[in-house]
Amino acid sequence: MELISILNLAYLVASILFIVGIKQLAHPKTATRGNFLGALGMLIAVVATLFDRAILSYEWIAVGVLIGSFIGIILAVKIQMTAMPQLVAVLNGFGGIASVFVAGAALQLSIPKYAYAVNYQEIVSIVFSAIVGGITFSGSFIAFGKLQGFITEKAVRYPGDQLVKILVGLTAVGLGVYGCLEPTDESIYWILSGVSLLLGIFLVIPIGGADMPVVISLLNSYSGIAASATGFVLNNNVLIISGSLVGASGIILTQIMCKAMNRSLTNVLFGGFGAAATEMKDDGDFYSGKVKSTSAEEVAMLLDVARSVVIVPGYGMAVAQAQHAVRDLYQLLTARGIDVTFAIHPVAGRMPGHMNVLLAEADIPYDRLKEMDEINSTFENVDVVIVNGANDVTNPLAKTDPKSPIAGMPILDVGNAKTVVVIKRSLSAGFAGVPNPLFIADNCLMLFGDGKKATQEMIAALKES
C-alpha cells in the first residue's frame, strides 16, 4: 500500500475519532471518554503527518514539540478553573496565527509555480487563511485582555467606529482580491495579514465584557474555519475535517449564546453590552438605605425550616473557588430532607458551560443542575434561593428597563421565590455595569463576603442549629 494511502487512512480514522469524541462530550458521563478519543485522534493525525515525505528535517519539529509540551504542562497545572475562559481565548489566538504562518509558508513554496500557472483554489485558501487567522489572533488576545483585566471590560466606542471597521474590512477584502490576482507578490500577503490583525482589534475592542461568552464562542469558530482553509492549502483532509467540526460547532454554540442573551450576532459584533449612552451609573445612591444585610446564622435559620432550596452559581463563586463548599452545603441540606437544585444560566460565568464544569469538578450530581428555561417557572414555589456571586443573570432590569444595556436578556427569575439570599463581596455592578434592583427587593437579603467563606459559615451555623 502506498504511503499516501496509509496517510489518508490514518487521517480518516482520526476524523472519525474527532466526530465520536465530540458526540460523547454532550453528556458528563461520557465526556471524559470523548476527550480521550479526541486526543487519540489528534495523536494519530500528528504521528501520520510525521511520515510525510515532504518533511526534510525533524530537528525543528522536535524542538517545537518539546517547547509546546512544556508550556502545555505548565498551563494545565497552573491555570485555575476561573481563568479557563482566558486560556481558551489564548488557544484560539494561537490557532489563528498558526494558520497565518502555515499559509504564508505554503505561498513561499508555490510562488515559483505561480509564474507559470496559478492554482486558484490554493491561492484563495491562502488569502482566506490570512484574513480569518489574523482576525482570530488579535481578536482573541483582545478578549483575553478584557477577561484578565488588562483592557477595560467596558465597550470602547468612539465617533465613527463602525465606519472605521467597514473601511478596514474593505481594505482587507481588496488586498485579498489583489493577492489572488497577483499571487507572486509575497509582500501583499503579509500586508493583508497585518490589516487582518488590525481588523480583529477593531472588531473586539468595542464589545463589552458581558458579551464575552459569545465572543469566545465566535473566535473559537474562526480558529476552526482558519484551520480548515489551511487544510485546503495543504491538501490535508484531517485538517479540513477537524477545522470544519470546530468551525461548525463554534457557530452553533454562538447562536445558542446569542439566543440565551436575546441578542443577534450582528448586535454583538456591531453593538454590544455597554455601548449605549444611557447606561446607568452605580454611584451608591441607588442602594442607599434600601439594602437588608443578613448573617450566616440568620440564613441558617431560614434554611433550617425550608423544604426547597435553589442555588444560583455565578462568576463570584468561581473566583472564590467556592464550588466544594457549595457541594458541602448541598450535601448537608439534602441529608436533612431538603430538595436542593442548581439554577444554571446559559451565560453565567465568562464562557459557555463555565458553571457546569465547576460544579462537576465538585462532584455535584448532574441531574441536580437545571437550565434556565426548565427552572424559571418553579421559582414561585421555592422557599429559599441562594445566589452565590451572580449578578447580571438575575438582574430584573433586563425585563423592566428597555434602555438598559441588558434589556431583553433572559434572566433567572429568582425574585419570584419566597426569600432570596445574595452572597456577594459588595454592591459593585456586574459585567454590564448596571445596578441590580434585586438587591433592594423586599424578599432579598444580602450576605456580604467571600463566596467560599460565607458558604462555610452557613454550614457551620446549620450544624449548630
Main pleated sheet: 6 strands, parallel
Low-confidence stretches: 272-283
Helical segment tally? 17
* Gyration radius from CA atoms, angstroms: 25 Å
* Amount of helix: 55-70%
Question: Element order, helices and strands?
Answer: HHHHHHHHHHHEHHEHEHEHEEH
Query: Taking all residues together, what is the mean pLDDT?
Result: 87
As laid out across the biggest beta sheet, the strand order is 3-2-1-4-5-6
* Strand runs, count: 6
Name the shape in a single word.
elongated
How far is it from the N-terminal to the C-terminal residue, by CA? 75 Å
Q: Assess the beta-strand content as a share of residues.
A: 5-15%
> Helix/strand/pairing class, anyone?
alpha/beta
In short:
The chain is of the alpha/beta class and 465 residues long. Helix content is 59%, strand content 7%.
Can you walk through the features of this model?
59% of the residues lie in helices and 7% in strands. It is an alpha/beta fold. Strands 3-2-1-4-5-6 form a six-stranded parallel β-sheet. Strand 2 (339-344), helix 14 and strand 3 (369-371) form a beta-alpha-beta unit.
Protein traits:
single chain, 465 residues, alpha/beta, six-stranded parallel β-sheet, 6 strands, elongated
